[in-house]
Specification:
CATH class: Alpha Beta
Helix content: 40-55%
CATH superfamily: Zn-dependent exopeptidases
Largest sheet: 6 strands, mixed
Radius of gyration: 17 Å
Strand order of the largest sheet: 4-1-5-10-6-9
Strand content: 15-25%
Shape: globular
Number of strands: 10
Distance between the termini: 31 Å
Structural class: alpha/beta
Number of domains: 1
Amino acid sequence: MNRLLGLVAGTVALAALGSATVGASGATSSPLRGAVVVLDPGHDGGNGANATAINRPVDAGGFWKACDTVGAMTASGYPEHAFTFAVATAVATDLRHLGATVVLTRRNDSGVGPCIDDRARLANVLRASAAVSIHADGGPPWGRGFTVLVPETVVTEAGTTAPMVARSAALGRDLAAVLRTVAGLAPANYAGRAGLEARGDLGGLNRSEVPKVFIECANLPNAADASLVTTPSWRTRLAAAIALGLERFLRHR
């Protein structure tokens, strides 16, 4: 919990900067001023060496799951945790240029966790305008494409909150639309429908009291998707699309 409070304190300090980051970039407008976005890069670089810590069971919304997992990787060994952190930091930069206050659930790629319930709790404590958990899938080698995962139901510490399901679904639709039409990315051909899938087994969604989605940005065991995620220019394009989807949601809702 100390780590969670430290992230909250960092966010408060960042909010106090206001549009300073926008001014430094030369931008003259802040369309997302006042918005707080939590970005959750999936997994962490130290998880693999800390099995006891990440296997600890936590409440995932009425059932128990492991605190965290190691994540997937490409055939060449590029890990999901490195991909998610690179994309999340790029999305954060884009959103800050638009005036948003942004906090990540982890500050580097060498730590352990945090657990899935704390990842959700951080956005709840901050009363974030939106939260996005960035992942890459470990699906079948023949499958490729992205999927935006939205909650089937939300079971928070305060109980089930059906309205949050609808708000999260709206966020998911905005993100999926941008990934398809602006970034030109293909929806997954092995999961979901038109790039969207409702899930009830993800603690990070179930425990969220703010609009939140997961994005499986690509399928790492697939050779074609693996070549994309390991390309810096593609990661930059992906990050810009995620930021644009968040901007659409935040400005219109």
